[in-house]
Structure formats: C-alpha cells, structure tokens
Amino acid sequence: MSDQIQFIVEKLNQEPFRKNYNLITFDSLESVQLLQLLNDVLGEIDPKHAVDIREELPEQTAKRMFSLLGILKYKPPGNISDLSAFRQGLVTGSKPVIHPVLHWLLQRTNELKKRAYLARFLVKLEVPAEFLQDDTVADINKQYEELMEAFKNLHKECEQLKTSGLSTAEIRRDISAMEEEKDQLVKRVERLKKRVETVQNHQRMLEIARQLRLEKEREESLAQQKQEQKNQLFHAEQRLQRAQLQLKEMHDAVVDSKPESLMKKLEEEINFNSYLVTEKIPRELECKKNSAYFLQKVVAEPAMSQSDLNVLEIKINEVNAEMNQLIEKRMMKYEPIDSKFSMYRQQASIISRKKEAKAEELQAAKEEMSSTERQMLQKTNQAHELEGSEVLKGDEFKHYVNKLRSKNTFYKKKRLEIAEITAEYGILQRTEELLKQRHEAIQQQLQSIEDKKGISGYSYTQEELERVSAVKSEMDEMKGRTLDNMSEMVKKLNAMVAEKKASLAPVIKELRQLRQKCQELTQECDEKKIQYDSCAAGLESNRSTLEQEVKGLLEECAQEESNYHYINCMKRNLEIQLQRAKEEMKAYVSPDPQERRKAIREQYTRMILEQENLGKKLREKQKAVRESHGPNMKQIKMWQDFEQLMECKRECFLKQQNQTAIGQVIQEGGKDRLVL
C-alpha cells in the first residue's frame, strides 16, 4: 500500500497535475478533496469531466464517474467483492476505494486518453427493436453504423501512418532529390528542343507524338478499366452465388418454421440451460469442491512411507466392512417399511442417471456440431477462394451423385454400343472392299466383252439412263407425297387449334380465379410475415436478456467460488498452524521426557547446545593453531634452507665428478702418445 501511495504522489507532482504533495499531506486529504482529485485525473483523461464537484449533486458525480470508469473498463480489486460497497466507497470518498482507482488511472494515462477519445465515437447507442420497425429509424441507424465503421477505418489508417516511421527529415531529403531530378529533366528537355528545332515540320511531329502518347495512355487506362470491370464482374458473380446459396439455406430452414415451433425450441433450450444451472453445474461444482478439499487435506499431511500406506489400507478395509454390516442391519430392520418405495427409488435414480447422461451427450453433440459448423464454414471459404463455385451439400449433393451415377451408366451403355457399331463398321468396310474388288473385276470383264462385240460404253449408258429415270420417279413421288402431307397437316392443325381453344376455355376461366386467389394469399402471406418478424424480434430480445442474466449468474458463481476457495485455503492453513502449535504445546508441557524430546523447542535447544560445543572445540583448535603458528613457520623456513643446501651440495658433487672424468681421459690420451 505504501508503494502504491508513493507512486500516486510521484505522478501527481509531475506534469500536468503539479500538486506538490508528499506522503503526509496526501494521506491527510479529506474525502471531498480525494473525490475532487479523482475528478481532476478523470478530467485530464476526458476533458468533459473537468468540473468542480461542489457545483453538482453527489448522485450526479457518482453516476458520471461510474459511467467513465465503465467505459475505461476498470475492474475493482479482488478484496472489494461487493460492488455495492465499492459504489458506496466511491460516493463517500473512501481511501481504500479511491487509492486503487487513482493508482490504476495514473499507471496508464495515455492509453486511457485514447480509449476515452474513441469512446465518444464508438460507444453504440442501443435502439429498441420495436423502434427499428420504422423505416426512417432503421435507415438512420444503418447510416450511424456505417459512419462508425468509417471512423474505425480512418482511425486505423491514422495510427498506421503515425507508426510507419516517416519523418520530416526523410521527406525533405526525398523532396530535394525529386527537385534535383526535375532540374535534370528540364535541362534534358531543353537540349532535346534545341536539337529538334533544326528538323522541318517539328511542330507537327511534336503534336503527332503528343497525340500518340495521349492515345497510348488512354489505351492503358481503358485496358485497366476493362480488367477492373472483369474483376468486379467476377466478384459480383461470386457474391451472387454465395447470396443465392444463403437464400436457399434460409428458405430450407424457414420451410417448416412457425412461431409455435420457435417457442417450443426456445423453451427446450431454456429448460436445458436451467437444468444445467440449477442441477448439473452445482452438483459438479460440489464434487470439485470436495475433491479439492480432500486434495488439500492430502497435501497438508506429512510424507508417508509404505508401512503407513499399508496401515491406512487396512483401516479403509475395516471401515468398509463395518459400513456394509451397518447397511445390511439397516436394510433388515427397515425392509418392510421401505419395500414399497424401493422400486420407485431405483426408477428415480435410473431416470436421474439417464437424464445426466443425455444432458452430457446433448452438450457434447452441441459442441461437436458447433465445431463441425466452424470446419464446414472454413472449408466453404477455402473452396470459394480456390474455385469460386457453389459448394453442394445435403440433398443437392445426393442428387448430384445420383445424376453422376445415371450418366456413368448411360456412358457405359453408349460405349458398348459404339464398340458394337465399330466392330460392325469394320466388317461392313471389309465387305465393301471385297464387293468393290468384285465389281471392278466384273466391270473389266464386261468392258472386254463390249470391246469384243463392238459396243463399248453400252453398260455405262444404260446405268445412267436407269439412274436418271429412278431419280425422276422419286421426285414425282416425293412431290405428290409432299402435297398430300401438307393438306393433311393443315387439316390437323385446324382441328388441333379448335380442340385446344375448346379445352383451354375452362382452364383460362379457372386461371383467372386462381390469380385472384393468389393475390389474396400473397397479401395474407405478407401480413403473416410482418407478424412473424415482430414475434421473432421479441423472442430474440427475450433470448438476449436471458443470455445476459445467465452470463451474469455464471460470473457471480465463478467469483463466489474463487472467494470460497481462497477462504477455505486460508482457513486450512490457519488450522494446520493451530494444530502444529497445539502439538508443540502438548509436547512441551508433557511429563514424559520422550514426548518432550519430540518438541521443536527441545530439538532446537539440543541443536543450539551441539553448535555451541562445536564452536567451543573449534575455538580451542584455533587457539592451538595460533600458538604453534610461529614455531611451525620457523621450522618450515629451516627445512627450505636445508633443502637449498643439499641441492647446492648435489650440484657441486656433479661438477667435481665431471671434472675427474675429463682428467682421466686426458691422462689416457697422453699415455697413448708416449707409446707411439
């Protein structure tokens, strides 16, 4: 708390507050002064709150502060569990309430300024659903939401520009570089102009070049517009396909939907949620609390060996046996009375277990369905991004598969027919070749016979005459059939027209009645649709209020559970400490020396005595070492001197030995010379 107050005082002494407080003067502030100080900090964050609290009522001040703290998303600390106590402390200017608020505000002033600025434009006004039925109000609300989205986008762009890292120095350098490039281009253009002025008709050529450049730019812009329009058309077709798919899904979902079915579905959801809130979740919470309590109890116990575990297992078995004996005795004693209700109890327990199992299955199925829907939505988006075509599902996919199967069957059938026709075609082709060969042989024989008889070309002329006569007869016959067919067709058409007129007369009369009935049904359908929309809007608002209530209850339950666990842990720690203190007192005042030895005080006393004795021995040893330190050092010095003396003697001995060996070698050499 002292660090918190010191931080607050340091921040208040800086810009823009400059209060010149110290810890004593800040702690001596009254409640009104604290509230005014809090209001000044809030006024620095949002200038609308820079007012004097003495000029307004306390209720107005509290309401204004509560609204701003809510916008800034301030949450009271954990030790203020009751929200009403926090509100009361804020109204009265209580220090335990004001100090944490000031500490939180002064920690993140710049961030809160930005949040308060955005809140003026992004806090949405909630319009009741019944007012939105008016077209004017709905249009204004839509424009309001569009302007809010536009503000969000502009604010994001502004933040991106602020954090993009562009500085004025870089911009100036870019401008100077662009000016230098401009000067170079101007000089180059002047040189080119001077070079072109010597050419004949240079003005006309420049004009033609300018027009060519303009046309090329226009061609590029037209190509770009064409590409943009193609892209827009493609995206529009994709949006149209998605919209048609969504419309079809909505139509399929609303085919059998009625207010009664929606009410029934909502009632089922409410019953299921109420069962979860009132029965299932509290029971699971109680089980979790019990398991946590037992786990805390196990953690608080000292470490156990295998023998202790065996003893506990034996005790558990004995207690279970006693429980079974007591249950049997109770059943034997109360069996005549409870025999009537035992069957109903068993049925009730079975039904409750089934209900719990079904509730868990339903919850798991809902979670699985939601995850599957998310996966399906992701896959649909991926398919739209990759292909851009409609994704079939449900009955459409089955119909598509059946259609493919029928096409496959038809394809196989046609393929067999093509194979048969191909085989037959091969046979006929071979037959044709054989017949042609025979025909050519016969023609050659006939030609040779005609040459021998002197009537060459007779057979060819006869064939031509026969062919022409056959063609003429066919044409005459075709003309006659055509005239007959046309006369018969005219008669049939006249008869069919008369027959259709006669048959369509009552149908047209009935169609007029059906059209009138269709208009009436359409009008009735529009009225029912308006009623359905209003009913659906009311139900949606009721559902949202119920969801908010359930959410609030769940948050309250979670907060209460956390408080309970915290208090339970603190209680358990205090109980363990108290138990240890009692055991210590019991062991300390016990007349039994063995028990007294187990006391922590006795153990620490023994340890202190042992350490004192050890320290006494070490001090005596240190004293003896100090006393013998001088003589020992002298002795070490004498031994070092003795070692140096012996090393010197060894070196002298080695030198003398070397000199003796050299002298002997010289003497032997002299003797050898004398002998020679």
TrEMBL record:
UniProtKB keywords: Acetylation, Cell projection, Cilium, Cilium biogenesis/degradation, Coiled coil, Cytoplasm, Cytoskeleton, Differentiation, Phosphoprotein, Spermatogenesis
Transmembrane segments: none
A GO molecular-function descriptor: tubulin binding
Keyword Cytoplasm: yes
Gene Ontology process terms (BP): cell differentiation; cilium assembly; intraciliary transport; spermatogenesis
Protein name: Intraflagellar transport protein 81 homolog
Entry's Gene Ontology cellular component terms: ciliary basal body; intraciliary transport particle B
Keyword Cytoplasm on entry: yes
Annotated localization: Cytoplasm, Cytoskeleton, Cilium basal body
InterPro entries: IFT81 (IPR029600), IFT81_CH (IPR041146), IFT81_N_sf (IPR043016)
UniProt function note: Component of the intraflagellar transport (IFT) complex B: together with IFT74, forms a tubulin-binding module that specifically mediates transport of tubulin within the cilium. Binds tubulin via its CH (calponin-homology)-like region. Required for ciliogenesis. Required for proper regulation of SHH signaling. Plays an important role during spermatogenesis by modulating the assembly and elongation of the sperm flagella.
PANTHER family per the UniProt record, alphabetical: INTRAFLAGELLAR TRANSPORT PROTEIN 81 HOMOLOG
Residue stretches making up the IFT81 calponin homology domain: 3-126
Domain of life: Eukaryota
Any coiled-coil regions, as ranges: 137-253, 309-382, 483-563
Annotated family: Belongs to the IFT81 family.
